[in-house]
Amino acid sequence: MIRLLFAVLAMIVGALVAGAYFQFDPTALIFAALAFGIYMVGCIGGPSLPADGGQMHWGGGEGIYFSGHDVWVEGAQSRDRDPNGDPPKG
User: Fold this and answer.
1) What is the pLDDT of residues 49-68, one digit of tens each?
2) 42 vs 2: CA distance, rounded Å
3) Residue ranges of the chain whose pLDDT lies below 50
4) How far, in Å, CA of 40 to CA of 10, rounded?
5) How far apart are CA 13 and CA 5, in angstroms?
6) Contact 41, 4 (CB under 8 A)
7) DSSP 28-49
8) Would you tell me how many other CB atoms lie within 10 Å of the CB of residue 57?
9) Is the CB of residue 24 less than 8 Å from the CB of residue 60?
10) C-alpha span between 77 and 74 (Å, rounded)
């Protein structure tokens, strides 16, 4: 997949250099390089999807997620306890 990315980037750079050297608009070549990349991703299978054919939901993967309890609000008492295990003072 990384090789494909580098190949598409090289084709785009080549189109830009050729456009500057031969003085023509390289837009068609850039779109052709992007289309080639999209086609190749489709041919090699693309990103893996769930094996059971189900849908992937937003936030359904691994990662770091925050809730409202994770945000410190200025002036609010801490929900954490001090190192001795006593409730916060204050």
Assistant:
1) 667 766 666 655 566 666 65
2) 15
3) none
4) 15
5) 12
6) yes
7) HHHHHHHHHHHHHHHHTT-S--
8) 7
9) no
10) 9
